[in-house]
Specification:
There is one protein chain. The protein has 14 helices and 14 strands. It is of the alpha/beta class. It has two domains: 246 residues, Rossmann fold; 93 residues, no CATH class. The strands form two sheets. An eleven-stranded mixed beta sheet has the order 2-1-11-10-9-3-8-7-4-6-5. The protein has a three-stranded mixed beta sheet with strand order 13-12-14. Strand 5, helix 4 and strand 6 form a beta-alpha-beta unit. Helix 5 runs parallel beside helix 6, helix 10 packs antiparallel against helix 13 and helix 12 crosses helix 14. It starts with a helix and ends with a helix. The structure holds adenosine-5'-diphosphate and magnesium ion. Adenosine-5'-diphosphate (ADP) binds next to helix 2, strand 11 and helix 10.
Amino acid sequence: MLTNSFAVSRSVCMMEQSEPVPQPVAEWPGAYVGKTLQYKLPFFLDTSKLMNPHVSLIGMTGSGKTYFMKSYLIRCRLGRDASILIIDWNNEYNEIVTMLDGTIHRLCSTAETASLDFNLLCNGVHSINLASMHNDIDRRDAATAIIHSVTEFMHGMKIGNSGNRIIVLDEAWKLLNDKAALTQLFREGRKYGIGVMVATQLVKDINNEILSNTACVAVFRIQNSDDSNALLETGIVDNEGIDSLTTLPVGRCLLHLVPKTTSQKTKFAIARIEGIQTTVYTIKSDRMQMKVSGEKFIWATESLIKEHDKRAKIVNMIEANERELDSVGFIRFLLRLGLDRSIIVPYLRLLGLTDRAIADSFNSAKGAMVEIE
Ligand SMILES: Nc1ncnc2c1ncn2[C@@H]1O[C@H](COP(=O)(O)OP(=O)(O)O)[C@@H](O)[C@H]1O
Ligand SMILES: [Mg+2]
């Protein structure tokens, strides 16, 4: 069955691809990621089969990096008992740390990093939560101190340690002021069984040494063609993949893998990361307050808003509002994007608003628009 459908999809293949060939279930290793775009084969990521254990995720805000990160971490912990240390800037990882029975360490000042015990933090599941710190400069200093301490801890370990540890730096561009420390972690981590996982928005945030020491790079939607061209120069994406990068839907990515046993690099697309949803959005109106899962929000947005740039603006806006919207402000935002009532009404219905709440919010939104204009 699988062989037949593989043969069929191969015969209609328009582009040279290097997806892995189908294998018996027993040989699928690693953490499940999603299905490949072309042959719809389940893909499992096992970094122990790659040149090094590091993973870099690149893509614009709202493209699906954190979702991948969280789903992958949950599966690495449950399936392979990995130890995980997360540097959490924005309170984004509390749910998964709790879900994995880990510990959240909340820091209020940079000085508190001195009292952290990295023998404890580098075993089991921990997050160092920087959200309560004063400002981004303090967070960056704390993150830099943490990376130095992890490096020190690493140097205290025996080389060849077959540890299974993951250090997570989401929004890594915010802390790349000390590139040397991070680069060292990428360069030496493999020897000590420490994998670094970073997510960032622009390829230029990650230096070439980090990229060349990353055996798994996932590229999500990229903002514009300048960023795509920067990726082309690194060789992570080639000419065939480049055009699609600015229009990838949320959760779709191009993977670039460097296997351990062959120098042959593998590049293919994952149709959609199939993960575990932990994001919730809140939409408030005079009449009701609704919670919408991130998955439902993305599904409704992709079903009704056809233009990629408008979808991205919607996701950016709701993320910037800390995942809380009032329905009147939301409608005004959608009208300003150039969407009209015939799209907005079914969109809000799909999100779960009642017709009554939609009608009232529309009237207030129109009123507010007129006042402003
Ligand atoms: N593969 C996916 N399937 C379903 N929902 C997704 C997927 N990827 C992302 N999302 C949702 O899209 C929104 C933005 O994703 P996120 O991972 O936070 O983006 P980023 O970290 O790149 O800014 C979130 O609500 C998230 O739950
Ligand atoms: Mg994110």
